[in-house]
Specification:
two-stranded antiparallel ribbon, 13 strands, 12 helices, single chain, about 35% helix, alpha/beta
């Protein structure tokens, strides 16, 4: 008689097996199949094997995940549609290319590193593994390997943030938001202690706090790599419509930060920074004493040094 596996739904043969195809469960000593991943008697998991691809690495991770916080952790195959999003996820944007690469790897090898989750009612809440879960859902996987941990809110935030902290693709804005959120949630930690715990430069964090005050459109542009933080700082002086025009100009022509500053000043019709004249070989700051020698009727104004040099002028040796 055949019975169905309660976890994967596959039919399994309940007829007695030859001794060479069985082994004793290391937890309850009952006889089980040699290739079993979970004991049908005591319910303990015996190790994760990526679907059809040989041994997994759960046994190697056991020492990392077991008992670190004084809680018993459990390995499960969790239903992908029963895992809720992590409300403390610092990464707000997932790059489509890296997600596609991950999906390609998972098609071939499965999920090698389990997700980390915590129980939430009848389902689970994600702690770490946002991209793996997204990729699994898009690939149509019904179950994903996961470590179930008993965590309070603070521990959940720590694991979630530390997993993302030193990733290359974590934007500076996400990092600052992560830091500020922990400070807001747990003021007793203190900014200095928190920066030391996370290995961050507190002075740099303080200087970069203005990034999270940027308009949403500029924050998204920085996250997507369309512009740098320096570009965004120049663009924040524009209103919505002009910001979009400037972003398109920067992206289309690959403008530098200095060229962006020049563009913004033009759009805002600010007073140009440098002056010269048709006959002069040099350009100057407006307060330079040598500007008194310039013919004001033939004055040429420039928004940047780059623009002046491009027109054939040299920088004044006195004021520049």
């Amino acid at each position: 008689m055949n019975i169905s596996c309660p976890h994967c739904g596959k039919e399994i043969d309940s007829a007695p097996l030859p001794s060479r195809q069985t082994k004793a469960c290391p937890y309850c000593a009952e006889t089980i199949r040699r290739d079993a991943q979970k004991c049908r008697h005591c319910g303990e998991f015996l190790g994760y094997v990526s679907p059809g691809k040989g041994r997994g690495i759960i046994s190697l991770l056991g020492g990392v995940f077991s008992g670190k916080r004084g809680h018993k952790n459990e390995f499960v195959h969790a239903p992908a549609d029963k895992i809720e999003a992590n409300p403390y996820q610092p990464r707000e944007l997932v790059d489509k290319k890296t997600l596609a690469d991950l999906k390609k790897s998972m098609r071939q090898y499965g999920i090698i590193v389990p997700l980390i989750v915590k129980r939430d009612g009848k389902g689970y809440q994600l702690v770490a593994g946002q991209r793996r879960l997204m990729a699994a859902r898009e690939l149509g996987m019904k179950f994903v390997p996961a470590i179930v941990m008993t965590l309070n809110v603070r521990e959940m935030m720590e694991i979630s943030y530390l997993e993302n902290l030193h990733r290359v693709d974590l934007s500076r804005i996400d990092l600052i938001q992560m830091f500020e959120r922990i400070c807001l949630e747990y003021p007793e930690i203190g900014r200095e202690k928190l920066s030391a715990m996370l290995g961050l430069d507190l002075e740099q964090i303080t200087r970069d706090r203005d990034l999270i005050k940027l308009p949403v459109i500029l924050q998204e542009a920085v996250r997507r790599g369309m512009v740098s933080e320096e570009h965004a700082r120049h663009l924040r002086h524009l209103d919505g419509k002009k910001t979009i025009e400037a972003l398109e100009e920067i992206y289309r022509h690959r403008l530098t930060a200095e060229e962006t500053e020049e563009l913004v000043n033009r759009l805002l019709k600010k007073q140009p920074k440098y002056i010269s004249s048709g006959k002069s070989l040099h350009f100057h700051r407006p307060d330079c004493p040598y500007t008194n020698l310039l013919d004001r009727h033939e004055a040429n104004w420039y928004y940047s040094k780059r623009e002046a040099v491009k027109s054939g002028k040299r920088a004044c040796m006195t004021c520049l």
